[in-house]
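Per-record layout

source: Streptomyces sp. Y1
name: S1 family peptidase
length: 399
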Amino acid sequence: MLRIRALAVATALAGVVLTAAPAVSAPAPAPADEPSIAAALTVAPADPAAAVTAAPPALLRAYQRDLGLSPQAAARRLAREARAAAVQGALARTLGDRWAGAWVDGPDATLVVATTDASAARAVTAHGGRATVVRHGLAALDGAKRRLDAAGSAAAPGATPLWYVDVRTNSVVVRSTDAARTETFLRDSGVDRALVRVERAATVPRPLADLRGGDAYYIDDAARCSIGFPVTQNGQPGFVSAGHCGQPGSNATSDGGGSIGTFQGSTFPGNDYSWVAAGPDWTAQPQVNDYAGGAVTVSGSQEQPVGGSVCRSGSTTGWHCGTVQELNATVNYAEGTVYGLTRTTVCAEPGDSGGSFISGSQAQGVTSGGSGDCTSGGETFFQPVNPILSTYGLTLATG
């Protein structure tokens, strides 16, 4: 009976490629809780063919691009990882305070189980698993991290940009830019120093933010306009907007006050367009804010003909739509004449300047000016986007 059960367990484990670990000695007599550990390891193997069918093509392409895996290899990995996740959850419940975490290792996604109990590790190994015996349980490591979180909640320590529980090394890793200051922080936190491993921080994390059409930005802390369309220039992110919003060298900041970048080019009058180069903290997203809790994805910049529908996104009045009335209009503003604008029946108000005009998923242009408002109605002109891209050598962010 025992032999039949062991064979069934070994068969079930075949789909995850679990191997014996050199860190654990040869199997000893089975511990008392072997049946529960064996049951935790007995999870039906996932079907790689089903994983291929279920996985979105974009996911498989990303695995091939970023992990160097063929679609078939990616599907096998997905299947093995799905089963490993199920085994991990079952073992965590079974081992309780003896549980020290788990991870998948190597291209075959081999599941490695860490435990503080040598007999539990022998049971895992006896049933085809790979296990390693460690000093600290996961609960102790999580507790140490919570203590660091509490100590850093008042003011994040500048010398320690990152800490986390590392189950592979059975420690709480603290990355440091200044060893002395980090040690002071650890001492003041009251954390058990034996649980902590300090690593030199090669880089410092920073917030990453999205550039999105229609969102607000501020110029030299004095005026507000709206982002037209996110773009890149030789890989550098940025966005196009109206020329009358800022001059070359003007600073652009976000609605939250963070720095975006500076105006690199601006023309007004004559034309009414500009582009802002953003810092590396920003990502040029192919999106326009629809001011209804979502966004419209930009897929190109094909010009809409006269009579076609068009919508505008701006930080004052949000999302409004109308139709194209004329192309290549000349508008004589008090500040000077602007050529090549498109006239629309869409309303706009101050602060919407620079914002996105889009038809379906096709970028049309950036808001220039107009008359009326969004209460009584009016007309608005936009500067077509394609001449802006051509003038500054920009690439429209598309998705």
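summary: Residues 1-30 have pLDDT under 50 and may be disordered. The longest strand covers residues 318-333.
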